[in-house]
Amino acid sequence: xxxxxxxxxxxxxxxLWAVSLHAAEGRPRVQQLDRIVAIVNNDVITQRExxxxxxxxxxxxxxxxxxxxxxxxxxxxxxxxxxxxxxQLQYAKDTGIRVxxxxxxxxxxxxxxxxxxxxxxxxxxxxxxGINFAKFREELRNEIIIARLRxxxxxxKITVADSEVENLLAARAALSGGGDEYNVAHILIAVxxxxxxxxxxxxxxxxxxxxxxxxxxVNFGQVAASFSDAADAMDGGQLGWRSPARLPSxxxxxxxxxxxxxxxxxxxxxNGFHILKLLxxxxxxxxxxxxxxxxxxxxxxxxxAVSEADAKRRLLLVRDRLVHGGDFAQLARLYSEDGSAxxxxxxxxxxxxxxxxxxxxxxxxxxxxxxxxxxxxxFGWHLIQVLERRTQDMSKERTKLQARQEIRARKADEQYQxxxxxxxxxxxxxxxxxxxx
Length: 437
Fold this sequence. Notes:
4-stranded antiparallel sheet, about 50% helix, about 425 residues, single chain, 14 helices, alpha+beta
C-alpha cells in the first residue's frame, strides 16, 4: 500500500508532466519539467536523473573509444543499472549504513592526492569536464555506501580454507598452462531467480542476438553497453586480468581453448547466459624479487588527552636519548604504544605495501641503523629504525597469497552477483520510461 504522501508526489509529477506538454500551434511553448521514469519500492527515478547519468556514461564510452548504442537502448540499460543501485541504497539505509560528510571529504582529499592536486584543483578539473561537484559528491557517497554494504553482506562472510589453496596450486601444477592469466571482457544476460522456462528462453534468445551482432563485427563494448546486465556493461564489459581461479569454471574451461581476439559461444551459468572475449593472455610464472626491510619503531598515539604536538614532543625526547646512546629496544618497551613494544618495537621483515604509505616512505629513505625524525601516520607518531635490507625471491609466497586472494575474489564476485539479483527480484519496480529518444 502506497503512503498518502507518496501517492500525492506521483500525482503531482504526472500533473507537472502534463502541464509541460507543448501548447497548440501558434501558442507559446511551456518548458518541459521533470517526470518519473521508474518507481523503485517507495522511491522514484526521474528523467533528469536518468539524462544526467546517460550523459556521464556517454562521456566514458567516448573516452574508451566505444561507439554509443542507440539512445533508447542506452536509456534502458542505464535505467536498469540505476534501479539496481537504488535498491541497494534503500537496503543500506534501512539497515543502518550511513556515510557522513567528513568521510566523503576525506575520500575526495585522498582521490585528489592520488591525482597530484589539492581539493580545489581537483574540483576545477571536474568542472572543466562538465561534472557538477555537488553531484559528484553524492555519487561518491553512494559508491562508498554500496561498497560498505557489499563488504558487510558478502565480503566479510567469505572464507578460504588452506585446503582450497593447496588444491588450486596442485591443479595448476598438473596443467601446462597453470600460470596463465586472461584479460577478459564479457556480456551477461541475467536470468531471474526461480525463472520460468519462458523467461530462461527469452534470456537465451537475447544472448544469441548479442552474439549475432558480434559475429557481424559490431564493437564488443558497444554490444556490451546495449545488451549486458552486468555492472561493468558501460565499461565495455571488461573484467581485466584474471587467473583461472578468479573465474567460474565454465569461463576458465572456455578461455583455455581460445586465442586472443576470440569470442566464445553463449555459455550458461547459474546467473544467466554469458559471452566472453579473450583480449589477451600472459604467463605469471616469473620470479618475484622483492626488497625486504627489517624495521622497528616506537609509536605514540594521539587521543583526547595527547595532542599531536604532545606526541611529537615526547618522541623528540626519546630520539634525543637514542642519539646519545640509548637502547632502541629498551626504549620501545618503555614508551611504545604499539603491540610490537614487547618485542622491542620489532616489526620483522616487511615487503613493499605491507605498511601505510607515510610509514613506508620514511622507512625507505633511511639507511640501515639510522633513526628517523618523528613521522606522522594514521596510527599516531613514530620513530623508525631500519636494521637491515635484503632482496628475496617471494615467488612461492606470492603464489600462495595470490591463490588465496583469487579464490576469495571469485567467491565474493559470484555471491555478490547472486545477492544483488535476489535483492532486485524482491523489489517493487514499475517502469514509466517511454521509447522516445
